[in-house]
Amino acid sequence: MSDPLAQAIELLRPRAVFSKTISGAGRWAVEYTEFGHPAFSAMIEGSCRLSVAGEEPVVIEAGDFVLLPATPRFGMSSLEPGPVHRIDARAEPPQQEIRFGRQGGPPDMRQFGGWFTFGAPDADLLVTLLPRMIHIRAAPRLAQLVQMLGCEAMRDDIGRGLILERLVEILLIEALRSAPAQTAQPGLLRGLADTRIAAALRHLHGDIARPWTVPDLAGAAGMSRSAFFERFTRMVGARPIEYLTTWRMAVARDLLRRGGVSLDEVASRVGYSSASTFSTVFSRHAGQPPGRFMKSPAAK
To answer: What is the reported pTM?
Structure first.
């Protein structure tokens, strides 16, 4: 049976970019501008308050892990915050360590965090299927992965890039499967947490070339058409055929990016009977026909 979550992460093509130690002492507060790239943090010691735009503030404690797949505007502070220092996340210079609040003496809080990029040309589309914020309590396994990532990032050795990419993939999968999916906003993670909807998603992802209909997918879920349609839309945040088309276009973009496959074959692999029909749908979703997309910088 197919694994929709693993397929989505594979298409996102995460790439490790930067990681650092962040510490704080005394009273402090920072606010980061919207960043767009996925960011992560593992709390090593102490605690701090995290406020992410659109989410309720939370206290992050030692052993916790946080992942922001798209990193909107967010703030961090000591539990008794000081004056806010605003930071442009995109202009922040690379550093191996950053200190907030009192500069001297031992830190009250220490975390290891970083950010990475998604290489997929339609990453924004796929990221909408993931939660805005993932906060996992007492996550020693994730903390170990983050430490491994940090150690490898500081090395200058053969295979470094490939190891970093694989570690980020593992980190992302581990974080998503450890997240409390039942409380997540609508998306792929929440859909996979529902036994019946997950069955339909696995069938759909396992054979996207099949001419799926809502009754077909409802049958895979063991539900009536109307009950399935309502539940799928509520859990996933998109109507079944809308989700199917979105996923087909994501796979098509990946095939076109890789090259070596004719337009007719791409169309057939993602469930369209002719290249012309596929081109019409692709143009509507991508804003340009497949041939032009293959030559564009987005496909590189």
So the answer is: 0.78
